[in-house]
Design brief:
The complex is a heterodimer of chains A (228) and B (160). Chain A is of the alpha+beta class. Chain A is built from 4 helices and 13 strands. The radius of gyration of chain A is 18 Å and the shape is globular. Chain B has one domain. In chain B, the strands form 3 sheets. In chain B, strands 1-9-10-5-2-6-11 form a 7-stranded antiparallel sheet. In chain B, strands 3-4 form a two-stranded antiparallel ribbon. In chain B, strands 7-8 form a two-stranded antiparallel sheet. Chain B is globular, with a radius of gyration of 15 Å. Classes of the chains: A alpha+beta (228), B alpha+beta (160).
Chain lengths: 228, 160
């Protein structure tokens, strides 16, 4: 699988890879990363910062995309944002664990052109999704809806997109809401699908409504504008 | 003076207003960057229309004021519903759901305040009908536009 600086990989948690260091002699690699929401993380119980070693990961440090494979899965679904990949020696502390899976080809393509080293909304959005995951039955979205939200935000939001409100929605879903620049934008994530809806507030004209997959680029374009 | 006598059901005048309590909770509110403040979320949790009757409850402002009530009287501290918003009945009635206006009526549920000032906002649907997601958002986001805070303080920081 491909990991490049700026790429966002995988799904349920979130961390930022600060450095991936490989030992050219034995092929082992170490990853230094920051847990961006240390208060929760659930399955991983990770603190900031941490250093982890990949044992036999087969990381090849090559120009351009770097191949990573053979990483064992212990804390599944951790999301990583790769900010740099640096050749050199490594330090060992424990096994790397975490299945590293590119969440979307588009993320990798974007990363090649422009590394995503800072995601303004990441802490807030992921923290809120965690809050909802731990909320009472009447508010807690389904696991699938939360997973969908945690994955798709990386594809849709720009680095500087302003943090949205994150609230439980109808049908056990989760909704991200922006009210800015005269636009109301809602992204709704549910078990089986995700939806986008937007209107111009002044005219009340709805100009976006439907499945997110049908409006992916429109939503991306809109979110690029919803910055300060 | 109220245009519908106490204890009787009827249409509330356009110029009168509905008070409705909202939960002072981040799960029920959305931040409005343009307005620089929080507004009710356009969700079922904040604007809860009964699945069967398609009714959302409120209180008729003028009726309560006639009995000396102020918005604070509707606050139930223990429940978390510490925010009172109001919206003009005429403005609510102008909200269209699939071309049909919402209905705003006085629907007393008891003889004394605040029950005697109970008001109902009805979504114009047939009993078995469930509005599409886009329609739900359209109506609820419009309602969120119309309701203005008249009691309570929201201490939440904006999403950051």
């Amino acid at each position: 699988m491909v990991a490049v600086p700026g790429e966002v990989v995988s799904g349920f948690g979130w961390s930022r890879i600060e450095e991936i260091v490989m030992n050219p002699e034995d092929g082992k690699a170490a990853m230094r990363w920051h847990s961006l929401a240390p208060s929760n993380s659930g399955s991983s119980q990770l603190k900031w910062p941490h250093e982890h070693e990949t044992r036999g990961a087969g990381l090849e440090n090559t120009p351009g995309p770097t191949m990573m494979s053979g990483i064992s899965r212990t804390f599944a679904g951790v999301a990583f944002v790769v900010s740099s990949i640096v050749p050199g020696s490594y330090s060992s502390s424990m096994n790397i664990s975490g299945q590293i899976v590119p969440i979307a080809q588009t993320a990798a393509e974007g990363a090649l052109a422009q590394p995503r080293t800072q995601l303004r909304w990441l802490n807030y959005v992921m923290g809120r999704l965690d809050d909802l995951e731990n909320a009472g039955d009447d508010l807690r979205p389904s696991a699938d809806a939360l997973a969908s939200a945690r994955t798709l935000v990386f594809q849709l939001l720009s680095d500087n997109t302003r943090s949205p409100s994150v609230v439980p929605s109808d049908n056990g879903g989760v909704m991200l809401a922006w009210h800015q620049a005269g636009v109301d934008l809602y992204l709704t994530f549910e078990d089986r699908d995700s939806f986008a809806w937007a209107r111009q507030r002044a005219s009340e004209r709805v100009f976006l409504s439907g499945r997110l997959s049908d409006h992916h680029r429109e939503v991306q374009g809109l979110l690029e504008k919803l910055t300060d | 003076m109220p245009n519908v006598p106490c204890g009787e059901t009827g249409q509330i005048a356009d110029a009168d207003a509905i008070w409705r309590t909202f939960k002072n909770d981040i799960n029920y509110l959305e931040y409005d960057v343009d307005a620089g403040g929080w507004r009710p979320a356009a969700t079922m949790q904040a604007f809860n229309f009964d699945h069967t009757t398609h009714e959302m409850s409120g209180r008729w402002r003028e009726h309560l004021q006639g009995d000396g009530w102020v918005p604070r009287g509707l606050v139930n501290p223990g429940s978390g519903y510490s925010l009172v918003y109001e919206a003009d009945a005429g403005a609510l009635r102008a909200v269209l759901a699939d071309g049909d206006p919402l209905t705003v009526d006085h629907t007393p549920t008891g003889p004394t305040p605040p029950d005697c000032a109970h008001a109902s906002v009805y979504w114009p649907l047939r009993m078995e009908e469930t509005p599409a997601r886009s329609k739900r958002l359209e109506v609820r986001s419009r309602l969120a536009d119309l309701f203005r805070l008249v009691e309570g303080t929201i201490a939440l920081l904006p999403p950051n």
